[in-house]
């Protein structure tokens, strides 16, 4: 029997070929590492990336040993963009197979099309702003509070997807967004009522924090993220350029904006202490996580649906909250727990497609 014949399935008197969805579903359910399927691995990677980035960034911004210099956030954003460009170039080199094909593609798609790079100026500028604001937010908000509040990017993305991409949202999704706002409001009520933080880590100094500044940074970052994401999606859908090429173009523009911001606002401390002042192993891990995390998630979500991503978001909030209790002495109130539960539920509900689910229900 040929391979073609083996791949056919019989349904009644008809033979049909397995569809791509069948293949993806089968591949996703097969064990690929330590007995885990691709979907399970995707869930773990998403939870680990979301939780560790927030917790490590928070720790690196508020915890200082006596005499230790705080690293400059703008330098970390710039180096993350440079690292992202390098990672995308390595992926392109692997895809092209040879250095000749790789160099030809770089000359043709990147160096030979400066106008395409200019298209990335708007989203890259917004992403640069967003990345800097994340450091501001996590310097002033608890990791768990940030994780919950940052889910407002779901709302901003939804609104901009309607405005820029012409999408329409169902009543269920608008309800989920309303629940999201209620939950975030409850969570922020604790943050505003208690601005002091006590850490259980010994021999450290805590940087001063301002929850209001942190909240404004998160809101601005969410708006920036929503608009930039929809704008970038629109560009991707209106051209056949490789995603990696687009990310390199985005990284080049982002590195330029980050460099300008770094030199404009932090040139004096950089001249006095150097570009890498205050850097340690944790700082470099934060930079790498911020640079490669987005690319890793983009690859991982190929095997994850919206429900799984929503579940990963919920688990990340729980993980961040639990670790914050032991690491930063975070004490969640009853209002915070209720608000976090509402946000997690809204994130999960937003990823559900009720119309398709009810369409499969046959009337009695």
Features:
two-stranded antiparallel sheet; mainly alpha; disordered N terminus; 6 strands; membrane; UDP-N-acetylglucosamine transporter; disordered C terminus; about 375 residues; transmembrane helix; EmrE-like; Nuc_sug_transpt
Q: Would you tell me the structural class of the helices and strands?
A: mainly alpha
What's the β-strand tally? Answer: 6
**How many alpha or pi helices?**
16
Radius of gyration: 23 Å
Question: From N to C, what is the helix and strand string?
Answer: HEEHEEHEHHHHHHHEHHHHHH
Keywords: Membrane, Transmembrane, Transmembrane helix
Subcellular location: Membrane
Protein name: UDP-N-acetylglucosamine transporter
Main location: membrane
What is the structure about, briefly put?
The protein has 16 helices and six strands.
Structure explained in plain terms:
- This protein has helices spanning 3-6, 20-29, 38-62, 73-96, 99-111, 114-118, 121-138, 143-149, 153-165, 171-193, 211-237, 243-273, 281-300, 306-327, 334-351, 354-359; strands at 9-11, 14-16, 31-33, 36-37, 63-64, 205-206.
- The radius of gyration is 23 Å and the shape is globular.
- It is 73% helix and 4% strand.
- The chain is mostly helical and 364 residues long.
- It starts with a helix and ends in a 5-residue tail after the last helix.
- Strands 1-2 form a two-stranded antiparallel ribbon.
- The protein has one domain (42-351).
Draw up the topology in text.
Layout: H1 3-6, E1 9-11, E2 14-16, H2 20-29, E3 31-33, E4 36-37, H3 38-62, E5 63-64, H4 73-96, H5 99-111, H6 114-118, H7 121-138, H8 143-149, H9 153-165, H10 171-193, E6 205-206, H11 211-237, H12 243-273, H13 281-300, H14 306-327, H15 334-351, H16 354-359
Antiparallel strand pairs: 1-2, 3-4, 5-6
Helix pairs in contact: 3-13, 3-14, 4-5, 4-7, 4-12, 4-13, 7-11, 7-12, 8-14, 9-11, 10-15, 14-15
């Amino acid at each position: 029997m040929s391979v073609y014949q083996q791949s056919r399935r019989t349904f009644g008197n008809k033979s049909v070929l397995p569809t791509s969805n069948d293949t993806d579903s089968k591949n996703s359910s097969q064990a690929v590492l330590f007995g885990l399927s691709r979907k399970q691995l995707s869930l773990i990677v998403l939870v680990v990336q979301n939780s560790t980035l927030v917790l490590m960034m928070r720790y690196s911004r508020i915890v200082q040993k006596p005499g230790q210099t705080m690293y400059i956030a703008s330098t970390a954003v710039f180096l993350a963009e440079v690292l992202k460009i390098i990672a995308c170039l390595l992926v392109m080199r692997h895809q092209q197979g040879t250095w000749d094909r790789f160099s030809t593609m770089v000359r043709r798609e990147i160096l030979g099309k400066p106008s395409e790079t200019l298209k990335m100026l708007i989203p890259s500028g917004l992403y640069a702003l967003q990345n800097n604001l994340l450091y501001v937010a996590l310097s002033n908000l608890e990791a768990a509070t940030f994780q919950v509040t940052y889910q407002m990017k779901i709302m901003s993305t939804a609104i901009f997807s309607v405005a820029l991409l012409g999408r329409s949202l169902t009543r269920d999704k608008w309800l989920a967004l309303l629940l999201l706002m209620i939950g975030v409001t409850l969570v922020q009520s604790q943050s505003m009522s208690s601005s002091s933080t006590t850490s259980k880590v010994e021999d450290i100094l805590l940087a001063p924090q301002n929850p209001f500044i942190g909240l404004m940074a998160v809101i601005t970052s969410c708006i920036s993220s929503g608009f930039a994401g929809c704008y970038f999606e629109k560009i991707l859908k209106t051209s056949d350029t490789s995603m990696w090429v687009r990310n390199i173009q985005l990284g080049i523009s982002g590195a330029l904006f980050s460099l300008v911001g770094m030199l404009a606002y932090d040139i004096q401390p950089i001249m006095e202490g150097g570009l890498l002042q205050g850097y340690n192993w944790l700082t470099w891990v934060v930079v790498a996580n911020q640079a490669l995390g987005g690319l890793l998630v983009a690859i991982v979500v190929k095997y994850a649906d919206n429900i799984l991503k929503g579940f990963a978001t919920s688990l990340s909030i729980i993980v961040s909250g639990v670790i914050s209790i032991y690491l930063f002495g975070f004490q969640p109130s009853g209002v915070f727990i209720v608000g976090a539960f509402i946000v997690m539920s809204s994130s999960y509900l937003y990823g559900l497609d009720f119309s398709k689910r009810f369409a499969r229900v046959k009337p009695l």
